[in-house]
Amino acid sequence: MIAEAIDRYHSLLTPEIAAEANEKLNVLLRERGLYFGDRPLCRVLRPHFYVREQWAYLRRETELVLRAFAKVHATAKQNPALRAQLALEPYEEELFHLDDPIDVPWTSSRLDAFFSADEWSLSFVEYNAETPAGIGYGDGLADVFMQLEPMRRFQQHYHVEYTPGLSQLQAALLRGYHQWGGRDEPRIAIVDWADVPTRSEHEITRQYFERNGIPAVLADPREMEYRGGALWAGDFRVNLIYKRVLISELIQRMSAHNPIVQAIRERRMLMTNSLSAKLLAKKASLAVLSDERNAALFDADERRAINAHIPWTRRVEERRTLYQGKEIDLLPFIDSHRERLVLKPNDEYGGKGVVIGWQCSAEEWDDALRTALTTPFVVQEKAKVVYRDFPTILPDGTLDISARFVDADPYAFYGETVGGCLTRLSSETLLNVTAGGGSVVPMFVLEKI
What we know:
This protein is of the alpha+beta class.
């Protein structure tokens, strides 16, 4: 059905309709602030589609994997040996216990995956448990596409449904605040550096909170103060932080004695995602799930989901382990099988430091492996990537419909429920807006009329 729906959508793109839609798309992106820095978020004229059964499957399997991650988080907080597998920094070991009064450390998170709807193949390659971006962008893009003529015509043939993310984010933030013990009116600071390229999304989110009667500001950590037993952003008293700044950058730039950490220590406000969310934000969290030595942590359903959906992943270290049921010597195996492997830094984002074995030379792979022995890295087996055709207007004004890599990155709220999905497109294997290029599109669930 998906192929049929895509063909139907593309058939609606006459040269005139495509040109008009492209012009309107660019105008609306600019008006709504749907930009990553100075780049428009979207360069194509079609959203991504799933049928209802496919979306239900993606949600169900994701929630099983989330259940396994939650078990790892709870166990790691109590078990130093398991934490050692995550390769925490000393400051992370020092700070994560400040979350002890918090039931759930994340109000929103995101699993980055490839999902082939044709083959019902789902592979999770990363867990963004600390600062998942894109929720506000997704809602804005969905609204923009619903105003384009091709989507209007498409709805004569298909019912389309989008799951808003900001309403779920707000509900999760308030749930966390009240469970933490917040009694006063929530006053939210969306905290990140002032010069980040996602600043426009922060503003979209701030405006959403304000429209719903919740006072909110954008705040750079360097401009915040802890005084009089309260955290302040200028003259705005903060009791709830929606954290978008990375903890690693916050500590590196401002030390572990900054005003935010001081307010957390004294329980004067709630920050979410909180400090211990960083445990699962490590790339090694997928290694913990897929490593045979941790299988006893999970029940039968969780083990099935892990085996089906988590690519073989290991911390890079001198050890013996299992690969496809057979014992291997890990380092020689990595060295001799680069055509099927990826090396990833344990604590980076935006594709930084990722080395794709089948796209590099033997010398480059050897250099990367040497680095991985001195800095925490994981090695991960190649996941099956997904291609779909998407239309775009080329610089010369012609309509081009060609294949792009597509990922499927479901959002999770309160660590348990999937709602909405970030979808990124690229002509490169590394699908990451931060790394440059590519597009973000909204995802709609379809039913044929």
